[in-house]
Backbone:
C-alpha cells in the first residue's frame, strides 16, 4: 500500500507540500532548508532518491544507513534546526530501487535552519529572516492556529507545581541519559520546552496554555479553563449510571497516572511474550489511548473528555480540531500534531512515541489483545472504539491468498530463530532488498516476527522468531 501511495505522490510531482531530492550518495545541502520550511508552513513529504523530473534514481545501498544517520542527527541538533524536531525516515523499494520517505508535520513553533527562517510556497523554499512583516505574520499564525500557544503574561512560576516540574525533569533523565533538562532550573527547562514565549500581539512574555495544562496547580488550570475535566467511567453492571468513576480535573501528568490506574484496575492483562520478555498488552494499549486523549485534545472546547469501559468495549471521546473526517485507515494515515508542545513533553518522559508510530503500535497490540482492530474516527469529537470480545469466526473461510500461505510458512519456519539469509533461502528469493522491505519489515511491524536483538536491528547476529503455538494471548 505504501508503494502505491509513493508512486501516486511522484506522479503528481513537486508542489508546496512535496519535494524531491536526488541524494544518491549523500544528502543535498538544501534539504534542511526544506525541512525548516515544511515545519513553518503546513508540513510536507520529502522523497530522497527521486530527481526534480519525478524519475526514481534510487539511493546507493552503500550509503543508505549513513544518509539516515546524518539526517536524524542534524534535525535533532539545535545548531542546525532550532528548535530541534525529531523526524523518522522510511525505506521503500520501488522497481528494484530504494528511496527514503520523510513525513514532516506542521509544527506549532517557528523554526530556524542554521539561524535563518524559511517558509514555503509553490516555487519552493524561501528565506524570510530579514522580512519583518513575514516573520511577524508567521509567529502570529502559529500562535492563533495552536491554542496551546496562547500566552498568559500575568501567570507566574508560583502558579505552577514545582514538584511536577521536578518529577518530569527526573523522568526525562531516566528516559534519556544526560538529558539537557537535568541541569536546567525550572524556568530554563520550561523555556527549552517552548512553554514560555513572547505574545506577538501584545509584545509581552509569559507561560503558555500548554505550560499551565502540564504543570499548573489545580486552581490555576480551572481559572484558565473552568470546563477542564476528563471523566473515567466503568459501566458494566449499572448501564444507566456507572460502577466506578474518576472525575479528573488536574494537570496532565497526574491525569495520565490516574487514567492509567483506572484502566489497569478494570481491564485484564493476558500473558504475552515478545522478544523473550513478558509484555503488557494492556499497558501498551492504555499508553496510546490515554496519550491521545491528553495530547491531541482541543482544550478551548468545553466538551469533556471521556474514557469509558463497558461490558463489551473500551471507548474514548475528546474534543478535536479535525484534519479530514471519517474512519482513520492506518495505511494511509498522515499524522497531524494537535498540541506539539504538550506532545514533546510526553515524548521526553517516555509516555508517547513519535507522531504516527503510536497509531501503528495501537493497531498491532489491539489485534494481539482481542483479535480486533480499533476504530478511530477523526471528527469534531475524536472517537476511539475497541471491542473487547474476540471476533466471531466466520462460517465460510475465505480463500487464502498466496501472501497468506507465504506468511504461514515463514511463521512455522521461524518457530526456531532464523537469520535473514536462512529465511530468504527458505523462500528461494534472491533479491535481498525486496525481501527485507516487502516481506520481512511488514511482518515485524505487524508483530508476527520478532527480532532477537531489538535494539540493533542491523546486527549481523540478528535473527527473527515467531510466537510459538500456545503462546498467543486471549482476553479473559
Residues:
Amino acid at each position: 500500500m505504501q508503494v502505491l501511495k509513493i508512486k501516486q505522490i511522484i506522479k503528481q510531482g513537486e508542489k508546496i507540500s512535496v519535494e524531491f531530492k536526488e541524494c544518491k550518495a549523500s544528502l543535498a545541502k538544501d534539504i534542511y532548508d526544506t525541512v525548516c520550511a515544511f515545519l513553518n508552513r503546513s508540513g510536507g513529504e520529502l522523497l530522497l532518491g527521486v530527481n526534480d523530473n519525478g524519475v526514481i534514481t534510487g539511493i546507493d545501498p552503500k550509503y543508505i544507513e549513513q544518509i539516515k544517520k546524518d539526517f536524524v542527527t542534524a534535525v535533532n541538533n539545535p545548531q542546525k534546526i532550532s528548535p530541534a524536531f525529531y523526524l523518522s525516515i522510511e525505506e521503500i523499494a520501488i522497481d528494484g530501487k530504494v528511496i527514503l520517505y520523510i513525513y514532516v508535520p506542521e509544527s506549532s513553533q517557528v523554526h530556524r535552519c542554521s539561524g535563518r527562517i524559511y517558509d514555503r510556497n509553490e516555487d519552493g523554499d524561501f528565506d524570510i529572516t530579514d522580512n519583518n512583516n513575514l516573520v511577524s505574520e508567521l509567529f502570529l499564525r502559529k500562535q492563533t492556529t495552536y491554542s496551546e500557544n496562547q500566552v498568559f503574561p500575568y501567570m507566574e512560576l508560583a502558579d505552577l507545581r514545582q514538584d511536577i516540574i521536578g518529577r518530569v525533569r527526573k523522568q526525562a533523565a531516566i528516559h534519556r541519559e544526560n538529558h539537557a533538562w537535568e541541569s536546567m532550573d525550572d524556568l530554563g527547562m520550561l523555556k527549552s520546552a517552548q512553554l514560555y514565549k513572547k505574545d506577538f500581539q501584545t509584545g509581552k512574555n509569559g507561560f503558555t496554555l500548554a505550560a499551565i495544562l502540564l504543570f499548573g496547580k489545580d486552581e490555576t488550570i480551572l481559572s484558565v479553563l473552568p470546563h477542564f475535566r476528563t471523566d473515567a467511567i466503568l459501566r458494566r453492571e449499572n448501564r444507566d449510571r456507572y460502577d466506578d468513576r474518576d472525575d479528573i480535573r488536574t494537570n496532565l501528568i497526574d491525569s495520565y497516572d490516574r487514567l492509567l490506574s483506572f484502566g489497569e484496575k478494570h481491564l485484564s492483562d493476558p500473558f504475552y511474550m515478545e522478544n523473550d520478555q513478558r509484555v503488557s498488552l494492556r499497558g501498551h494499549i492504555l499508553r496510546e489511548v490515554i496519550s491521545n486523549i491528553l495530547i491531541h485534545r482541543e482544550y478551548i472546547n468545553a466538551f469533556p473528555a471521556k474514557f469509558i469501559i463497558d461490558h463489551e468495549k473500551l471507548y474514548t471521546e475528546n474534543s478535536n480540531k479535525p484534519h479530514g473526517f471519517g474512519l482513520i485507515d492506518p495505511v494511509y494515515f498522515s499524522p497531524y500534531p494537535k498540541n506539539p508542545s504538550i506532545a514533546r513533553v510526553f515524548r521526553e518522559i517516555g509516555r508517547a512515541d513519535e507522531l504516527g508510530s503510536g497509531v501503528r503500535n495501537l493497531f498491532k497490540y489491539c489485534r494481539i489483545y482481542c483479535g480486533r482492530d480499533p476504530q478511530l474516527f477523526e471528527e469534531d469529537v475524536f472517537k476511539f472504539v475497541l471491542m473487547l470480545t474476540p471476533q466471531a469466526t466466520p462460517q465460510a473461510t475465505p480463500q487464502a491468498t498466496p501472501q497468506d500461505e507465504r506468511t504461514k510458512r515463514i511463521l512455522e519456519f521461524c518457530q526456531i530463530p532464523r537469520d535473514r539469509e536462512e529465511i530468504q533461502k527458505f523462500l528461494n528469493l534472491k533479491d535481498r532488498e525486496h525481501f527485507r522491505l516487502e516481506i520481512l519489515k511488514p511482518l515485524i511491524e505487524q508483530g508476527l516476527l520478532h527480532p532477537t536483538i531489538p535494539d540493533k536491528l542491523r546486527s549481523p547476529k540478528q535473527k527473527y522468531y515467531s510466537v510459538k503455538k500456545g503462546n498467543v494471548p486471549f482476553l479473559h
In short: The radius of gyration is 24 Å. Residues 146-224 form one domain. The mean pLDDT is 86.
